[in-house]
Design goal:
Elements: H1 2-8, H2 16-27, H3 29-32, H4 36-65, H5 75-109, H6 120-131, H7 140-165, H8 174-204, H9 209-220, H10 229-258
Helix pairs in contact: 1-2, 4-5, 5-7, 7-8, 8-9, 8-10
Length: 262
């Protein structure tokens, strides 16, 4: 919520703690969690799609490069696999991100007073009825670019950190996995954040991606593309570290238990 408000209304929300206080005072504690349901659904769908695609695309990359395993791929090849997996995730992510951004900013746009729904499903139905089904994909272009660019560094940063931290490819270490995932997540958001600012503007306001870029630059210059990056990076390292631990250890459990031969 804080990130989206700082991205879309920088003239009113320029500081992290001030934004938190203002939101709590005007909308209550509930306002701090506006859009949390679609945000959770977005993260689940995005992560599931991205990790699934990353594994499948890696197999294709191995075939194209003549490698016999994922570990034999170059860091650049692994990063490209990540970028392509991000493209796949963008199709799942765009509708849920749209609903989330609309819910998080509806008190600022005045849509609450005009009778716009305040629940995720009702908001989705409202968008479809008033703007058409294709409106759910509003902001897909900047989302596609953000996901491809971000996941290039997400998986590339993770694999690079593993090369530094792990002495053996078969080594199992929770803290090393967490740190590697945190590095990948921080790199992802650090490099992709300006595109995320444009994406949020497009989904909240009735502007094109190029129009959003012009608006941001004309109002705040280059700094405008990094509004709200602090809360984003604060959650990126621990959140992505935990994500990679969950994914890697779930795979490990399945490999050792569910698929062992009897």
């Amino acid at each position: 919520t804080t990130k989206v408000k700082m991205q879309t209304y920088p003239e009113k929300y320029s500081k992290v703690w001030a934004t938190l206080r203002a939101t709590a005072q005007s909308e209550g504690i509930r306002g701090l969690y506006a859009g949390s349901i679609p945000a959770v659904l977005a993260n689940v769908g995005e992560s599931a799609t991205a990790f699934l695609a990353y594994g499948r695309i890696s197999i294709g990359m191995q075939y194209l490069t003549g490698k016999s395993s994922h570990g034999e791929l170059s860091l650049m090849s692994q990063s490209i696999c990540g970028a392509l997996s991000g493209c796949c995730a963008s199709f799942v992510l765009t509708p849920t991100e749209l609903v989330k951004c609309r819910l998080q900013t509806q008190h600022l746009t005045g849509s609450v007073k005009s009778g716009v729904p305040t629940t995720p499903f009702a908001m989705m139905i409202h968008i479809v009825k008033n703007e058409g089904p294709l409106a759910l994909m509003k902001g897909w272009t900047p989302t596609l670019i953000r996901e491809a660019w971000g996941y290039f560094y997400f998986f590339g940063g993770y694999e690079a950190a593993k090369l530094v931290l792990f002495n053996d490819p078969d080594e199992v270490s929770m803290w090393k996995t967490a740190v590697s995932g945190g590095v990948g997540g921080s790199m992802c958001w650090g490099f992709a954040y300006p595109i995320d600012v444009v994406k949020s503007r497009v989904q909240v306001s009735n502007v094109s991606p190029l129009g959003a870029i012009r608006d941001v630059y004309s109002s705040a210059g280059v700094r405008g593309f990094f509004r709200g990056i602090t809360p984003c990076l604060m959650r990126a390292f621990p959140g992505c570290g935990a994500l990679f631990v969950a994914v890697d250890y779930t795979k490990l459990i399945f490999d050792r238990v569910a698929f062992q031969e009897y």
